Amino acid sequence: MEIKDSGLYIILCAVAVGLGVIAGTLKKPEAGPTETSSTTPAEQTTQNTTTETTTGIKNAKIAESGTGITVIKADDFAEVYPLEYASYMKNNENDEVVEYTEQNPYIKTLYEGYGFAISYGSARGHTYVIEDISATGRPHKLANCYTCKTSSFTATVLNEGDSAYAMAFDDFTNQITDPFGCFHCHGTNPEGGVITITHGYLVNAVADDFDSIDAANLSCGQCHTEYYFDPATKATTLGYHGLATMNPDDMLEYENSLVDGEGNMFADWVDETTGVRKLKVQHPEFETFLGEGSPHGSPDSMVTFTCADCHMAKTTAEDGTEYTNHYWISPLQNQELLDNNCSKCHKDLAAEVKKIQDETTAKEDELGNKMAQLDADLSKAIEDGTIDGEDLENCRLACRNAQWFWDFVYVENSEGVHNMKLTQHCFEKTEEWLEKAYSYLQ
Ligand code: HEC
Ligand code: HEC
Ligand code: HEC
Ligand code: HEC
Questions:
Q1: CA atoms within 13 Å, Cβ hemisphere of 117
Q2: Are residues 14 and 67 in the same domain?
Q3: pLDDT tens track for 233-287
Q4: Is residue 314 domain-resident?
Q5: Does ligand 4 lie within 6 Å of residue 34's CB atom?
Q6: Which one of 66, 180, 281, 349 is CB 3.0 to 4.6 Å from 407, fit for a cystine?
Q7: From residue 311, how far is each of 135, 305, 325 by CA, in Å?
Q8: CATH of the domain at 281
Q9: pLDDT: which is higher, 300 or 136
């Protein structure tokens, strides 16, 4: 955790929670984003005089490629790192799944023609990845689907290069020796907690900014990120180059500029009834949390945490040893973290989180239903022959763009909490593109 200059911090916090700053003292808010708690984070900061130690950014290493790497399995570390291993195995306890196609029927329309319309289970513990990918009702053609699922595949890409992505899915299944494992984040050696980035596409995407991003954030950004499969090579690829273009607006512009083998605008799939060439966003936690406006993640935020600070906080074992907890859970489930850290500024973090999530979910449903209606209206206009030519192409593009911004929030696993400002921005963009789509339908 890193806290910047506290004087400026308090002023900016006050602005953030909509308070007035009068001669350096903060007034109680009348209403605002934190009204559910009786004391706001900003007020708590002024009451609390503890000074936090400032830690610098921890740099990650980059795995070498083409080096005949064999994966060391998680089980092989059981005796060397018993605490980390035991906490890692606890991920088996995070086993609940929500089926989104049942929870939000409108996604059957929005994702029509794509696997996620058939089966879309919520995320659960890391140790379930192989079981879950095998059980989904979605068809898997290529081994690139294993990119974020097993360290065996990660090692194969390092050894064989991008050609591994285009292997048949079923051909690779027999080669899996380790599911999600230590290898993804530590390479062949976790000693001292050194982070080794094994997924090369992330290194390419953050480019010259690699060293400015904390190793722990990079370790998660290998998978909790928005990617696409390169139309020519089928390689997993991220649609940005450096942090300046790592935002939904620039990423959309970039993906819209790609062309597939047939000369068409790149699409993850095409909706057959409307002809809309659609994009599927996937879990952009890394882009959202490190994006502009994030209260704890963007470079200009006053208190910065890494993904690990909140999701794998340090824990003290019975014998007094402190270790990094590898049971990836919500910080709300970690009472020790809340008591020792977050509660210095957040009186009732659970209530704040719930409020943001409820608002986000309500807006997602409202816009999701509106886009499903747009889909129906466009289908009908095409059937009736009341739209064609340039209007039809423009309307299709507006539908694609509206859904991109909506999906950027829908599939981000924190439900707005990692970055409320970016979430609101995405919703506004969806509304703008919805309006444009209807302007061509008139
Ligand atoms: C998703 C990424 C990720 C995976 C997978 C992972 N670790 Fe870690 N590990 C981390 C992070 C982040 C830290 C903290 C590094 C720091 O302090 O900056 C860490 C720290 C450690 C440390 C240093 C001591 C400590 O507890 O702080 C050891 C040892 C370790 N991990 C072992 C393992 C083992 C064994 C596995 C597999 C069972 C594993 N890790 C899997 C991310 C990961
Ligand atoms: C190798 C890819 C990979 C890496 C690296 C990775 N994750 Fe994950 N993570 C996943 C996948 C895939 C799932 C969903 C598993 C499932 O549902 O079967 C997941 C699930 C989770 C969940 C549980 C979600 C839920 O709803 O219960 C949390 C929390 C999480 N990851 C946090 C992290 C953090 C924090 C890091 C970095 C320290 C990290 N992950 C690194 C792939 C990864
Ligand atoms: C300031 C603390 C904080 C940081 C830092 C943070 N998160 Fe979160 N994250 C949260 C909270 C709070 C939630 C919502 C948890 C809930 O609903 O109980 C959440 C939810 C999630 C979820 C959904 C799983 C779940 O248990 O609901 C995933 C996955 C996740 N975060 C990954 C990440 C990744 C990856 C990063 C870094 C790029 C990150 N988080 C950084 C606080 C944080
Ligand atoms: C030094 C004070 C401080 C500490 C410590 C702190 N926060 Fe925050 N946090 C803030 C401020 C300020 C905001 C922005 C509030 C706003 O804009 O309404 C914020 C916002 C958040 C948000 C977004 C939702 C919200 O309430 O606005 C989450 C989630 C969050 N913090 C989680 C955590 C977690 C988890 C911890 C402990 C690991 C933590 N914070 C520790 C000051 C702090």
A1: 12
A2: no
A3: 999 999 999 999 999 999 999 999 999 888 899 999 999 999 999 999 999 999 9
A4: no
A5: yes
A6: 281
A7: 26, 10, 8
A8: 1.10.1130.10
A9: 300
Tell me, yes or no, whether 317 lies in a domain. Answer: no
Determine which residue's CA is closest to atom 21 belonging to ligand 4.
Answer: 295
- Ligand 2: residues with CB < 6 A are 94, 122-124, 126, 128-129, 132, 148-149, 180, 184-185, 219-220, 222-224, 307-308, 311-312, 328, 413
Q: Write out the residue range of the structural domain in which residue 89 sits.
A: 61-289
Between CA 278 and CA 417 the distance in angstroms is 26
pTM, whole model, 2 decimals?
A: 0.90
* Tens of pLDDT, residues 31-81: 333 333 334 444 444 333 333 434 578 999 999 888 788 888 888 899 999
Distance 91 CA to ligand 4 centre (A): 25
Entry field: residues in the chain? 442
Does residue 25 sit in the same domain as residue 167? Answer: no
Task: Read off the tokens for 17.
Answer: 């929670």
* 13 and 79 housed in the same domain: no
217 lines ligand 3 (CB under 6 A): yes
Distance 6 CA to ligand 4 centre (A): 14
155 lines ligand 4 (CB under 6 A): no
Domain's final residue, options 236, 255, 289: 289
Tell whether 37 and 181 lie within a shared domain: no
* Vertex 239: Cα angle to 370 and 113 (nearest 5): 45
Is residue 401, in this structure, part of any structural domain at all?
Answer: yes
Beta-ladder partners of 236: 229
Is the distance from the beta carbon of residue 286 to the nearest atom of ligand 3 less than 6 Å?
Answer: yes
Q: Is the CB of 179 under 6 A from ligand 3?
A: no
